[in-house]
Structure formats: C-alpha cells, structure tokens
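[Discussion] Sanity-checking designs against the backbone

I'm trying to build intuition for which residues belong where. Below is a structure token string of 267 positions. I'd appreciate it if someone posts a full sequence so I can compare it with mine line by line.
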C-alpha cells in the first residue's frame, strides 16, 4: 500500500527489477473474492466514484459492520447493472433493511424495481451540496439566500420536533415564494417558455423531491443519514492509487480489488 522505488526493492530483496515486476503482476491478478459477511437487517450504503480511463467503482457497503458486501467495476452508474447487483444480494440471502444513497436516478430506479419495500434514505450531505451547486455559495437574491439557509439546516436536524419545525417553516416559505420560484419567461427566438430563475427553481425542486426520503434516520438511528463514510473510503483509496499512478488499467482494477480485501479485513 506504500510507494517504494524499484532500485530500493532490488537492493533489499536481491531480485532483479524484471523479477519483481513479474511478481507484482502475478500477485495483483490473484485478488481474493469478496464474500458476504452479514445477511440480517442490513443497513446498506450505495455510492459510486470515478477514476481515470472512465473507470467507475460502485460499492455496496454494510454500514453496521463497516464491510463492502459487493462491488462493481464499470464505466458509469447504470440501472441495469445496479438492479443485477441488488438481485444478487437478495439471491444470496441478504436482508436489506435500508439503503442510504445520493439519489442518483439509476440507483433509485434499481431499488424500486428490486427492493420496492426497502427504506431509502437520501444522503443529506449530497442534497446540501447539490442545492449549493445550483445557488452558489453566495446567492444574490433574498429568496435564494433563504433557500440555501433551509438546505444548510438539514444536517442539524436530530429529532422529530426539529424536523416538524423545519418542514412547517419550509412549507410556509415555499408558499410565500412559489410564484417567484416558478415564474416563467418566454424566449423571443425559440418561442418557448422557461423558468426565469432557473437555478433557484432547480434547487427548490431538488429539495422538495428529496423530502419524502430525508428523515427516516430520525425514527431509526441505525440508519445512516449520509454516505460520508464512503466518501472518506473513496478518498483514501484514491490517495493510495496516486502513489502507484503508473499502473496499467487492468492492474489498477486489480489494485482496487486488493484494497477492498485489505479494508474488509481491517488492514
């Protein structure tokens, strides 16, 4: 997992560089297969991250035991593949109680098809991040500033009472400003109508659509309300890969498999 220059490996091992390279290549190809470790009342986290060469790694992470139950190396988050992965977990006897995810359409669609009755908790950090991306960190209008403030508050909600207060305040605010948020302007050239305050409308709509799946964790504290643990996981993995940025594409994928194996075994 650490970087060492070949000349020092040659010096310390007494082997030639070509022999060491063959040894590494052989070792990388023999990455152990991930096995299912927990099957009962699983709180699953699903998230994907991207590497160079259009490589996407999707993890199905057991929040309770800090363990990757399943993974997929692909080129993007696809509904068909995620459906297949979830179906495989079900066929292996994994009882998924809840799934925390970032709200990616492919993930939500796959869950609805394979596990329609499972609890889906939207990652609150992703919601905040997306709203901020639409509005910017320092929006100019009063309405946008107020919406950003509502969004920033969601990760601080720790009780049902706080949730009720937030929902009531947000509903009141939206009713007062919905005509402004949904205001439309006609484009003179295209003759089409579109939202005058496009990013404000996108941010408000994103938050409203997420609300039904935002607060399950308040009734069950075992349900994670964010995928931050996976974000840290991905960051650490990429740091390790950076040390070995000369790896070929297939060896990079093999390195990732070994990394998952070591992390699953607490190393």
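Best answer:
Here's mine. Compare freely.
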């Amino acid at each position: 997992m650490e970087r060492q220059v070949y000349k020092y490996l040659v010096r310390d091992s007494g082997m030639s560089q070509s022999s060491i390279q063959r040894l590494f290549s052989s070792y990388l190809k023999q990455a152990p297969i991930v096995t299912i470790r927990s099957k009962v009342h699983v709180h699953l986290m699903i998230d994907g991250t991207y590497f160079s060469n259009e490589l996407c790694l999707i993890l199905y992470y057991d929040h309770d035991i800090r363990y990757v139950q399943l993974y997929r190396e692909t080129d993007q988050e696809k509904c068909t593949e995620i459906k297949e992965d979830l179906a495989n977990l079900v066929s292996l006897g994994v009882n998924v109680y809840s799934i925390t995810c970032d709200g990616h359409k492919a993930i939500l669609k796959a869950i609805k098809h394979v596990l329609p009755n499972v609890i889906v908790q939207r990652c609150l950090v992703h919601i905040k991040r997306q709203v901020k991306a639409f509005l910017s960190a320092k929006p100019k209008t009063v309405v946008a500033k107020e919406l950003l403030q509502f969004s920033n508050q969601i990760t601080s909600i720790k009780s049902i009472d706080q949730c009720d207060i937030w929902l009531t305040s947000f509903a009141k605010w939206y009713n007062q400003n919905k005509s402004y948020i949904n205001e439309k302007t006609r484009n003179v050239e295209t003759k089409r109508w579109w939202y005058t305050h496009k990013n404000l409308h996108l941010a408000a709509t994103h938050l409203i659509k997420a609300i039904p799946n935002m607060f399950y964790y308040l009734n069950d504290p075992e349900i994670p309300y964010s995928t931050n643990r996976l974000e840290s996981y991905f960051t650490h993995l990429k740091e390790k890969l950076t040390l070995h940025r000369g790896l070929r594409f297939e060896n990079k994928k093999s390195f990732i498999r070994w990394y998952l194996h070591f992390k699953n075994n607490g190393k």
